[in-house]
Amino acid sequence: MSIKVTSKEMVQELLDNYDNFLFDCDGVIWLDTTLLPKVLETLDMLRALGKRLIFVTNNSTKTRDEFVAKFASFGLKINREDVFGSSYASAIFAKDILKLPQDQKIWIVGDKGLEKEFKEAGYKTIGGTKMPELDEPLDLKNKDDPIYHLDPQVGAAVVGMDTKINYHRLAVTLQYLLKPNVVYIATNIDSTYPANGMVLPGEGTLVQAAAYCSQKKPYSCGKPSKSLIDVIVKTHGIDKNRSIMIGDNLNTDMKFGLDNGLETMLVMTGIGSEEALNALEETKQPTYFADKLGDLYELMESR
Amino acid sequence: MSIKVTSKEMVQELLDNYDNFLFDCDGVIWLDTTLLPKVLETLDMLRALGKRLIFVTNNSTKTRDEFVAKFASFGLKINREDVFGSSYASAIFAKDILKLPQDQKIWIVGDKGLEKEFKEAGYKTIGGTKMPELDEPLDLKNKDDPIYHLDPQVGAAVVGMDTKINYHRLAVTLQYLLKPNVVYIATNIDSTYPANGMVLPGEGTLVQAAAYCSQKKPYSCGKPSKSLIDVIVKTHGIDKNRSIMIGDNLNTDMKFGLDNGLETMLVMTGIGSEEALNALEETKQPTYFADKLGDLYELMESR
């Protein structure tokens, strides 16, 4: 049964028990373009206590620099090393975990952010935003089409958010995935994401399409996948037993913590709710929950 | 253990035991644009014996009339009532099995063939080839976009082969599928299809993408799904115990027969092989196999 954090003593216990605080961003730190209450104060308090703050987001369209800029727009100074977007995590996973040789190229289904992170990790990318001919319908009579000119140096196909996804891109991606030596990496497997009061198809929708036709299973580098915690541990050498994941999403954030041996805390400022929490069987519930992240600061300041 | 059909006596037994012969087309009747040997003679022989011949194909881009025309190009006269393409089967499934009221509209992801079959079944379709604006990238700032103007009369979303699939079409399809009253129909769940010596993403790739983001499970109307045999039985009132499915594909044709109580016979003129057959556990093997469909005629003619 999840425990609600309601007292200074409970916050103190959290502070004593954990050195590393991992946060989801949207729904925890901010909501879309609004900073959530007392987040600034909470993060300052944690920093003053020497805690390591790590920000983990499945958004695959932004680079770390772009995330740092978004934090800065709210007055939050964050080191890029402490931000793990799923595009960055994918690139580091390829380099440090899979140890994909740097002379191998990356076939991209995704946006500029994904390309930049792989480039920064030392890889050359193809596909992605660099092949506008893929925006046209697939014409099998066109012998110049990329589908007939696969690059033998491609060692991995990476699928992230790509609003230019179409049959042509799927068909060429399939040809790469069918090669036994080409590794399949997914930035994350989110089925949808919220936008303009709707939900739109998420990265996982594209990932599943490519997985279904190729029958190749991807390494997913976003929450809730293990690959992501491997990347974070490899980068920062954190002790998972002294780490807590704070998020608003039961399926991604809390599952990420629970599946990977991190302590977990749900906040109710995003898509999570106490109702959804209580509907889960006990072993799948996070250890703690709170109305908002800012409660940690407010409770510590209370008498 | 599958039995190879090698004698006149064995063919005679098949002829005695079955009244309804269901055939896959590509790899059984023809291979791409070539009629396979002794097919004409075999079908004539079966007809002369009063057998019912039914042709079952997962191809969702053609109407029954187009299939009849393809048969005619090989000199085979076939009644359109005896051809079950997966687009036709989807329309009949909606009308006769789901009993979807005819004043409800059908949201289409697919080509003209799919639209025509639903139109012929009495439904009005939207989407599909009728909304060229969906070929453009999704622009959430455009308040005229179909994503903001969902048609409340839509009662089903149907996904078949659509080489114009893109993020925009997926996103609008998702909005329809998220409505509790909208039924999800898939023409078939083939992961790929062969073309130009390659394999390309099949209907199932699009179907899975829409299923993943919407978390809605489709009724699939192609082989190997039960919906298809329901449609055939509803149309022709055949006795499944007196019916045999002949095909070249273990995963679709033979599974379709095995899962739905039809006798099964594999032929080796398409993608099936004796090696693949023997690799299957015994309960998943077809009862009979032959080198080609034309063997039925050749063996009967032998002394």
From TrEMBL, chains A, B:
Keyword Magnesium among record annotations: yes
Reaction(s) the record says it catalyses: 4-nitrophenyl phosphate + H2O = 4-nitrophenol + phosphate + H(+)
InterPro entries: HAD-like_sf, HAD-SF_hydro_IIA, HAD_sf, PGP_euk
GO (cellular component) term, any one: cytoplasm
Taxonomy, superkingdom: Eukaryota
Classification via Gene3D superfamilies: HAD superfamily/HAD-like
Record's cofactor remark: Divalent metal ions. Mg(2+) is the most effective.
Binding site for substrate: 223
UniProt GO MF annotations: alkaline phosphatase activity; metal ion binding; phosphoglycolate phosphatase activity
Keywords: Hydrolase, Magnesium, Metal-binding
Top-rank EC class of the record's enzyme: hydrolase
Residue positions binding Mg(2+): 24, 26, 248
Record NCBIfam families: HAD-SF-IIA, PGP_euk
Protein's name in the database: 4-nitrophenylphosphatase
